[in-house]
Write a structure and sequence with these properties.
With about 750 residues, this protein is an alpha+beta fold. It has 22 helices and 26 strands.
Length: about 750
């Protein structure tokens, strides 16, 4: 008979429930962490591809998720997979379930690539991808230089089993090495090795269940076979074609995981690519429990910071960081013990770099094999300050070291002075030859205030650039003092040339107000004529066999006038009819120019006879190579009057509306991305059969979007209006819709109405 639990100790059932709750909470936290890491990776990829700040990239990611209807996580997975060269192709016309499997494979691949370590990557591969296929455990080996298979990680297996398979020497000539040499996956539905693979049937393979299904999957990297992935089931499984395809998609990142294992073994060499991306100084030092720490690696910023130490790599840390050594020993020991990061809000003056003044914001991270990474930054170049300056246009920071005579610039400083990024930064005292002769006294007064009087100062100088003439540069700086002695200068450069020209123009405009008003009126008339030439508000369309067509265009606000919406209806030599509607992001002349380029390109490409999916793919490449790299949503359709079918696709655009016998429904669009968002994007096609009397409506978001309503509500308003206004004439229906339906986002609007005769 079970004894009751002592007072204060939970009973068996309560304890089991508590453990289950904690397990679920930990699982949810891991999933949320993986999701946030995936979103961060996607934001970084967009920031690099589109050359925009991270905050704008995050907004762009949200816009992509909304426009495609995929959601943020799936959109982020697509972006990460595309950036790393991993593509999972969805099959829109395939058997039920294929699309969802491909989508899950994309998520799984991206989640593995977003992992922090080999162990986490394999856990993610199993739990997020292979577990739904029934896989119980996975093993990953890498091929060593001597031909051995070394286990770099496993998930789902016991420790004794993992230890047993840690090394597989080549002389074993077992099924693992045979699969590796063959270079092709081996599928074992009942766990039995096939003839010629292992020499004898039933050769021992990892996995607790002897008759459990196995997959031996060679992983490739850099054109060769880098290792082997093994998946084990608890019992026999029919490894059909669908499962094999999905398994291959999910296993693709295993090659990268093998690379990570090599990086973890190689230590600083594997970390160098990451640490070199940091603007802050960073070093790797030994974190052994006994004996002095040794500097194993420093990035470029750290090399500048410890410039007084010759060849710091390989030296004892006490020689490289003499003023902060005791603090570093304490932080390294704490990091090695806790396994988590350790922080020092401010080390003593002259802490990590004697020549660069006081140091602060030190972080120590424990690494594998008793190493630690040390990352620090000065007060003058704290991450918060760098981020704030990065948000301001034409502003850059600089640091001059008066002891070594060297200077450090942020990337924008090179652009301000018209210099190549590889050039040596110029200290403030060396700017004299580049400054306009009349501003030489102002530069000398600035230096005197900073160095002699040891006070902050600013100056406005005219700087001669080698590429495009003179620029006006505002300089604000402060002296860096070490024990009262000026040892450096820290400040910012701001290019105020544009502001100066604006002030001059505004001043002159007050003297020419009447003339400016007349000129503005003339310009407005020119813009209006340009708008009418680009997109007539009610164009005459030729009569096409089997179709009645009407098109309408409504400009944006008067101050914009020229917008980025377009429509195009044109018969093709094949007898089909091209219908396209699109929306360039933004307004003004640039948007109109991009609109004209994309509409003309699509119009011409349609004469190749290609389908709408291929046309949109080519148009995406046109957008990526166009000046300014515009982005756009669009829908492209080809109507076949003989078959009465419409083949169509979209690029993140709103769905067409089909009205049949007074009832409207929106056609389900494929999941796609905007034109100009990602290279080599795919645009799957849909086919819709139409009947005589059917209406098809193609439109842009200016017709329906409202600030205080959801998109579903706005689309419902359009559907109900089209049902209520049912007409025998496309012209009447188009006019009535443009009169009664209007968004409130001040955007221009295009509408094309087709009626099948």
């Amino acid at each position: 008979m079970a004894q009751p639990a002592p007072p204060g100790v939970p009973s068996g059932s309560a304890l089991a429930a508590a453990v289950a709750d904690l397990t679920a909470e930990i699982t949810a936290l891991h999933a949320d962490r993986a999701r946030r890491r995936l979103l961060d990776l996607a934001t970084g990829a967009l920031s690099a591809q589109l050359s925009i700040p991270p905050d704008e990239a995050a907004d762009h990611l949200v816009h992509l998720a909304v426009s495609t209807g995929l959601g943020a996580v799936d959109t982020a997975a697509d972006i990460v997979n595309a950036a790393t060269g991993s593509h999972v192709v969805e099959v829109p016309d395939g058997p039920p379930g294929v699309v969802s499997e491909a989508r899950r494979a994309r998520r799984g691949t991206a989640a593995v690539l977003a992992s922090d370590s080999v162990g986490e990557a394999l856990d993610t591969l199993l739990e997020g991808g292979l577990r739904p296929l029934g896989v119980r455990a996975v093993f990953l080996w890498r091929r060593t230089e001597t031909g051995c298979l070394e286990l770099v990680g496993q998930a789902g297996a016991s420790r004794p089993e993992a230890a047993h398979w840690q090394w597989v020497p080549p002389e074993c000539d077992g099924p693992l090495h045979r699969a590796l040499q063959g270079g092709l996956p081996v599928w074992l539905p009942d766990g039995t090795a096939v003839t010629g693979l292992a020499g004898t049937a039933g050769s021992r393979l990892p996995g607790a269940e002897p008759k459990g299904a196995r997959v031996l999957f060679p992983v490739r990297r850099a054109g060769g076979t880098a290792g082997l992935l093994l998946a084990a089931w608890e019992g026999p499984v029919s490894l059909d074609e669908d499962l094999r395809r999905e398994f291959a998609d999910l296993a693709e990142p295993a090659g990268r995981v093998v690379d990570w294992a090599r990086d973890e073994e190689d230590g600083p060499r594997g970390l160098s690519a990451v640490l070199d991306l940091l603007e802050q100084p960073a070093a790797v030092v030994g974190a052994a429990a006994h004996g002095p720490q040794v500097v194993e690696y420093v990035n470029a910023a750290a090399l500048r910071a410890v410039g007084g130490v010759h060849e710091p790599v390989g030296r004892p840390a006490a020689q490289v960081f003499p003023y902060a050594y005791e603090d570093l020993v304490r932080l390294i020991a704490a990091a090695a013990t806790s396994g988590g990061p350790q922080f020092a809000p401010a080390l003593p003056e002259d802490g990590l770099a004697p020549e660069s003044g006081s140091m602060a914001h030190v972080k120590v991270l424990a690494l594998a094999r008793e190493r630690a990474a040390v990352v620090w930054d000065t007060v003058e170049t704290s991450p918060a300050l760098v981020r704030v300056l990065g948000r301001l246009a034409r502003i850059a920071w600089f640091e001059d070291d008066l002891m070594t005579g060297r200077s450090r610039w942020s990337p924008k400083a090179y652009a301000i002075f018209g210099m190549e990024p590889e050039a040596e930064p110029l200290p403030l005292r060396m700017l004299g030859p580049r400054v306009h002769p009349e501003d030489g006294d102002a530069l000398r007064e600035l230096l005197s205030a900073l160095v002699d009087r040891r006070e902050g100062a600013q100056a406005l100088l005219r700087v001669m650039r080698p590429d495009d003439g003179m620029r006006r540069i505002q300089i604000a700086a402060e002296p860096v003092l070490t024990r009262g002695v000026p040892t450096g200068i820290a400040g910012v450069y701001q290019d105020v040339t544009a502001q100066h020209h604006t002030e001059v123009a505004l001043s002159a405009s007050f003297d020419r107000l009447t003339a400016a008003q007349a000129e503005a009126e003339v310009r407005n008339q020119v813009v209006l004529r340009l708008q009418e030439a680009l997109q007539p508000e009610a164009p005459p369309l030729e009569t096409l066999p089997g179709l009645e067509i009407a098109a309408r265009y409504r400009p944006a606000l008067a101050e914009y006038r020229v917008g980025g919406d377009w429509y195009d209806v044109h018969p093709l030599p094949s007898g089909r009819v091209l219908v396209s509607v699109g929306d360039i992001a933004g307004h003004g002349i640039d948007a109109a120019t991009a609109m004209t380029a994309l509409r003309g390109a699509l119009h011409g490409l349609a004469f190749t006879g290609a389908g709408p999916g291929a046309l949109m793919g080519w148009l995406n490449e046109v957008a990526l190579s166009a000046p300014g790299q515009p982005t756009a949503t669009a829908v492209c359709a080809l109507y076949d009057p003989g078959a009465r079918t419409v083949r169509w696709t979209t690029a993140g655009h709103l769905p067409p509306l089909l009205v049949r016998e007074g009832r409207g429904r929106f056609l389900e669009p494929p999941h796609t991305v905007l034109l100009g968002a990602l290279p080599e994007a795919a645009y799957p096609e849909e086919e819709t059969r139409v009947l005589p009397g059917d209406f098809l409506l193609f439109y842009t978001d200016g017709l329906v979007e409202r600030r205080h309503e959801g998109l579903d509500e706005s689309l419902a308003v359009l559907r109900r209006a089209a049902e209520r206004l049912g007409s025998e004439s496309t012209d009447e229906l188009a006019d009535q819709l443009m009169a009664e339906i209007s968004g409130d986002t001040d955007d221009d609007t295009s509408l094309v109405v087709l009626r099948v005769c």
